[in-house]
Amino acid sequence: MRRHLILFVRAPAYGSGKRRLARDIGDLAALGFERLMLARLLRRLGRDRRWRLRIAVTPDRARYRQRVWPRGIPVVPQGAGDLGERMHRALGGCPPGPAVLVGTDIPALAPSHIAAAFHLLGRHDVVFGPAADGGFWLVGARRSPRLLPLFGKVRWSSAHALEDALANLPHGVSAGFAATLEDVDGREAYRRLMPRRGF
């Protein structure tokens, strides 16, 4: 079965995304970061034949912004609900096969990280990519015979997000873990990570 990679995106727009980062570095710089990361990840991940890329975007109407999205890549709305509901919907909406979902604010993210996550799904039901702040930058599921309930009550945007997600997994579900990476949510991470990554 085909592997599916979902890029989970908030369409870049001035004053609406990366609010914690924008409070530290300003709306214009945060918007520049969003645009740069999106372009970089589409370039890095979109042409890899080991998986089929699709984009799950919010707000839903942004899927019609044809100049933003590359041709040939499916763009689907995230729909309503909290972060967990929207991620679960994005994973469940893929064609048959294992699926992995990632965000767009991890400067170190490379195709090798995605390949490792799919490899882990060969031995586990679900896989998480832990973030240094206690959240997670990746979630994936084997989805056979169906997509498991993955989230439930999670304290999103907190140091407990991964812990809560793991606690919600049904009994007996095997979870694997990809590399721990750092996302950019504030001034310190922005200053520390961006110069090293060529931004």
Can you walk me through this structure?
It is a single chain. The chain is an alpha/beta fold and 199 residues long. 30% of the residues lie in helices and 18% in strands. Strands 3-2-1-4-6-5-7 form a 7-stranded mixed β-sheet, with helices on both faces. The longest helix is centred in the first third of the chain and has 19 residues, at 27-45. It is globular and about 45 Å long.
Chain oligomer state: single chain
Total helical elements: 6
Number of strands: 7
The rounded Rg comes to 16 Å
What distance lies between the first and last C-alpha atoms, to the nearest angstrom?
Answer: 37 Å
- Classification by helices and strands: alpha/beta
Instruction: Report the helical percentage.
Output: 25-40%
Biggest sheet strand line-up = 3-2-1-4-6-5-7
Give helix and strand order, one letter per element, not per position: EHHEEHEHEEHEH
Tell me about the biggest sheet? 7 strands, mixed
* Percent of sequence in beta strands: 15-25%
- Segments where pLDDT lies below 50 for 5+ residues? none
Based on Cα principal axes, name the global outline. Answer: globular
Average pLDDT level? 90
Q: In short, what is this structure?
A:
The protein has 199 residues and is of the alpha/beta class. The chain is built from six helices and seven strands; from the N terminus they run E-H-H-E-E-H-E-H-E-E-H-E-H. A seven-stranded mixed sheet has the order 3-2-1-4-6-5-7, sandwiched between helices.
Keyword list:
6 helices; 7 strands; globular; 199 residues; 7-stranded mixed beta sheet; alpha/beta
